[in-house]
Amino acid sequence: MITEPKKILFILISLFFARFTYGIAIGVPAKFEHFPNDSFPQILWNNGFWHSRIDSTRGDTIFITLGKPAIAESISVKISDSLEQIVMPKLIYRVGDTIRKSKIEKQQEIFVDALENNGYPFASCTTSVSIVSADSEKIGVSLLFSIDEGEKVILQRLEAQIDGKTKGSVIRHYMLFHSGQLYRRNDIEKATSRLRKMRIVSVSSEPYPAMDSQGKWTLVVRAKDIPTTTVSGLLGYADDEISGDIEFSTRNFYGTGRIINFTLSAYEKNREIEIGYREPFLWNSNISPQISSKWTIKDSTYTKREHKLGVFIPLGYETDLYTGFITDRTVPGSANNSISDGESFGLEFSARYSTLDDAILPTEGIYLNGGATGQYIHYWGDENTIDFGSQGEGKVLTAFRWKLFSLWIEISGWGWLVPILPQQSQWEYLGGWKNLRGYREDQFTGSKIFWGTIEPRFIPISGVHIFPFADVGGYRDYEKWHTKFGYGGGIEYRYGAGVFSIEYGIGEGRNFKNGLVHFGLRMNI
């Protein structure tokens, strides 16, 4: 007899553990006091107690007869012999299991998913149940899963239905599509995610297979052009210092998928110009060539020119390999005697893996990037030296999503492996909004650097992140390692093809009143 809502909850939770009595598990929803009385038999029916019923009710008292559980005595699957090896390992029902509606639906879903990922997007599954025995303890049931796999789909072409200028060949290469590809739903979802991360189109609906007029299976992709060109200028002021950036970027030049970047930066007496160009594919392959040049003027210390030429090679939907040539030339300034004329050239290799849900403003996923260089280095001036050099770098970013919140944890590093301490023109910079907030842009320099951050992010609307942050960074100079800390808060939001950032950072030697305001436009992670 059930006399109170709390007792109802207690009894139904007890039913959940009825497998100790009946050898079964019964799913029980929460907050049963909100369920109408006549719903209890339905709950029990769906969990294998086909003869359960409400005998009577009196106020808040419900009298229930549980009945006998329905137990699977035989299980069979009807499908083509050639597909048994795909389907049978996915069978989760076993003889002796309770006949539950939710588990039957789950089993049907598993069968269909297995076939959809092996070339059968139109597969379906039905289940028939028949009673084969009954005794005082249970009802014996026979389960028959009947599977209709439908037609096998081998995709011969991709049809891009674009609202805009983007060419179909760009969509095909970014999705790594090739003729003769077996339809696999998981692969199509990963290819679509890869296309979205390129940030040139919005996919209006999930791609689907269709038969064209020539009887060939075609993958139909419907998408719309999105803004991919950004022209921005950023200006900052702190400690009587004016600094800023001017940047032009386009990721889909006239619908061709070509990427062009131009950046001019000025901080104190330092100047930097960077130009980059990337093709989306080469001939009919998915290889993507890239060329870039960078000019750096470090006050009156030195001038440096760097050039890179390489190719991106996709190893999968989430993994890319980069390899290329690098060269640089350093000319000492008039006010510096510690840096010699120098040049270097060599090879660069790196690999990248990403499951991030967004390429520049993610909320969940993981990003891994690591690489190394091998360089021939030649200095001349007071001394003429030839040496071998090698750099290494790595980055890990993880993002965890929970409702309107996302937690970012990032750690990155760069450094010379050989030689241990090259001359200062070959060092890297640390400080500013790119890696260590609360400090001036490029305030520190070292032959090795690292930085990390923890950012719990609040996402009130899509494309807007508000967050506090805690940064740590370190650099190795001629003497030793130095470690710096910073903290603060900021906001990031989508702007054109990038993410605009406004952050307030407080580093060592500063307080809340004299922290630094950082502005930035991020085009990638």
Regarding CATH, which class of the largest domain? Mainly Beta
Mean pLDDT rating = 86
CATH names the topology of the largest domain as: Porin
Categorize the overall geometry: elongated
Uncertain runs are 1-11, 14-37
Number of strands: 29
Q: What CATH architecture label of the largest domain applies?
A: Beta Barrel
State the strand order across the main sheet: 12-13-14-15-16-17-18-19-20-21-22-25-26-27-28-29
Which sheet architecture does the biggest sheet show?
16 strands, antiparallel
| Overall tally of structural domains | 4
CATH H-level superfamily of the largest domain: membrane protein fhac: a member of the omp85/tpsb transporter family
User: What fraction of residues sit in β-strands?
Assistant: over 45%
**Rg over alpha carbons:** 31 Å
Oligomer: single chain
Number of helices: 7
Q: What percent of residues adopt helix (DSSP H or I)?
A: 10-25%
Short description:
The protein has 525 residues and is mainly beta. It is built from 7 helices and 29 strands.
